[in-house]
Design a protein that fits this description.
Keywords: Coiled coil. Residues 24-278 form the EAL domain. This protein is α/β, with parallel strands linked by helices. It contains 12 helices and 9 strands. It has helices at 2-36, 74-84, 87-107, 121-126, 129-140, 153-159, 161-172, 189-194, 204-207, 214-229, 242-251, 267-277, and strands at 40-49, 55-66, 70-72, 115-119, 147-152, 176-182, 199-202, 233-236, 255-256. Helix 11 (242-251) links the parallel strand 8 (233-236) and strand 9 (255-256). Helix 1 packs across helix 2 and helix 5 runs parallel beside helix 7 (161-172). The structure holds ligand C2E and magnesium ion (3 copies).
């Protein structure tokens, strides 16, 4: 009896794995076609100055509109793209599309201050990222100071020494660098000090339990202090409540991003926002609301 059960479980486990493997294989095949068939597009999430609610930039977030499956979120396909090196092409597409879009908004006189683009560690490892960034800047005409690249802490710390050269090269192009999902990796302080980065983005897993979570509050306070002691700007991700915004503002955290201010918007939505508010006027609508 027990043996039968065990066997059943084993079979179930096997077929479950097979489903997953099949799904992966399916998505990988589809992803190869997605680029050519124009199924990828970007969303833009506003980033604000916490002190006055002003729009200071936006982060470009990759989306995939599959003809049958509908919109597939990046968490589903980026890991697959990273395993197959397809990420190099996807990342290149995202960088070019984001810079082109930002430049178009600038040409229209919509004062977007900065566009942030996510970069996978695989792109640093297996492609000429510095060459690509330099090319895209020339090609789109976007002034380099408007481009920020986000690299996750886990990757940056794992690769140590080898990365510094690439990051230095990127800084030489005039772009700024942010460490994404900060607090989730194992940062060596000695190493962090030597990295040519401009900003830390506090991971939203800490922000979501603020202000009542004591551990999260302590960690967040420490990250802001660490960032400032290294002369880095600090941005808090995933702010959903006014209380979280107030808490972080109180710590001296400079910038924020999250559903409280705005969800990621499609290009038309972002353009409408820019048109309506035309930076550098403060985006009062994006300020945390108090009361009903
Ligand atoms: P990320 O770079 O940390 O991006 C922030 C994610 O948090 C986005 O998810 C955003 O929609 C979500 N978010 C923002 N504010 C809130 C909030 O207030 N509450 C909650 N619950 N979530 C919030 P998204 O768009 O699903 O992207 C997930 C991840 O996929 C990104 O995390 C990034 O690591 C990766 N990704 C997205 N686009 C690209 C890309 O072009 N290249 C690479 N390499 N990775 C990308
Ligand atoms: Mg990011
Ligand atoms: Mg992040
Ligand atoms: Mg993330």
């Amino acid at each position: 009896q027990a043996k039968e059960e065990g066997r059943g479980k084993y079979l179930f486990y096997r077929s479950h794995l097979t489903d997953q493997a099949q799904e992966r294989q399916f998505l990988e095949g589809e992803l190869r076609k997605a680029l050519e068939q124009g199924e990828l597009f970007l969303n833009y999430q506003p980033q604000v100055d916490l002190a006055d609610g002003r729009l200071v930039g936006s982060e470009a977030l990759l989306r995939w509109r599959h003809p049958e499956r509908g919109i597939i979120p990046p968490d589903k396909f980026i890991p697959i793209a990273e395993e197959t090196s397809l990420i190099t092409q996807l990342g290149e597409w995202a960088l070019r599309a984001a810079c082109r879009q930002a430049m178009e908004w600038m040409r229209k006189g919509l004062g977007l201050h900065r566009i942030a683009v996510n970069i996978s560690g695989v792109q640093i490892e297996r492609s000429d990222l510095v060459g690509l960034v330099a090319d895209v800047l020339v090609e789109t005409g976007l002034p380099s100071k408007f481009l920020e690249l986000e690299i996750t802490e886990t990757y940056v710390m794992r690769q140590a020494q080898k990365n510094v050269k690439v990051l230095d090269g990127l800084r030489s192009c005039g772009v700024s660098l942010a460490i994404d999902d900060f607090g989730t990796g194992q940062s060596s302080l000695a190493y962090l000090k030597r990295l040519p980065v401009n900003k830390l983005k506090i991971d939203r897993s800490f922000v979501s339990d603020l202000p009542s979570g004591e551990n999260e509050a302590a960690i967040t306070r420490a990250i802001v202090a660490l960032g400032h002691s290294l002369h880095l700007k600090v941005l808090a991700e995933g702010i959903e409540t006014a209380a979280q915004a107030e808490f972080l503002k109180g710590l001296g955290c400079e910038e924020a991003q999250g559903f409280l201010f705005s969800r990621p918007l499609d290009a038309a939505g972002m353009e409408a926002l820019l048109t309506q508010h035309g930076a550098p006027a403060p985006l009062t609508q994006l300020l945390p609301r108090t009361g009903p």
